[in-house]
Amino acid sequence: PALVEMLAGTPLRDRVTQLLFSFAPFQRVSSCIQALGAFPNLHELSFGHGGDLRDLRTVLTTEFCERLASECPMLRKLGLRYVNNECMRVICQRLSLEYIAIWDDQGKLTEALTADVVDIMLASPCATSLREARLYGIYAFGTVELLRLVEGCPNMVKFGCSYRPRNAAYCDALNLASLRRLLKSRGGKLWD
Description:
The protein has helices spanning 2-8, 29-37, 62-71, 85-94, 117-122, 126-129, 143-152, 169-185; strands at residues 18-21, 44-47, 77-80, 99-103, 132-136, 158-161, 189-191. By secondary structure, the chain is α/β, with parallel strands linked by helices. The termini are far apart.
C-alpha cells in the first residue's frame, strides 16, 4: 500500500494503466479499493497469476467487485483467482471487459464458480465487449460450456482454456474442433 500511495501522489498517477499483483498486498477491502481508485486511467488489473494468494479470498468478495467497478470504470482487462458466480455477475454487468483471465487449480480456488457463470456472462455487456478470455483449471467448465461461451461472445477471437472432461472423448473432441473453427472464422485462434 505504501508504494501505491506514493505513486498516487505523483504525476505518474495519470500514467498508470496496469497493475499486476502476484502477492496479497492489502489486508482490507477499503485500502485496496482506495489504492486502485487512485489511478483514473487504470485499464488492466490482475490478482493472482502466480504466488500464494489464499489471503485474497477475503478480499475478492461481491462488495469488493462492486466497489472495484465504481472506482475503476475504465478497467478493460481483468485477471482473477478466488472468484464466484456473484462476483462474476457484478464484474460482467458493471465493466465492459475486453479480456478476462481466471486461473484455478481444478476447483480448489473457485469452488463457488459454477457452469452458470456462462449464462451470467452471456446475459451481460461483456458478451459483446469480450475479445479474449483465458480460463484455466476451472473445474465447473467442460467443452460444452466453453463452446457456448465463445458462440455467445461474437467479438471473441482469442480463447485459452483447460477443461474438465465430462463427455465421451469424441464429444469433447467435436466441441474443441467447433471452437477452433469458430475462432478461426473470426480471424482468431484457440490456445489450449
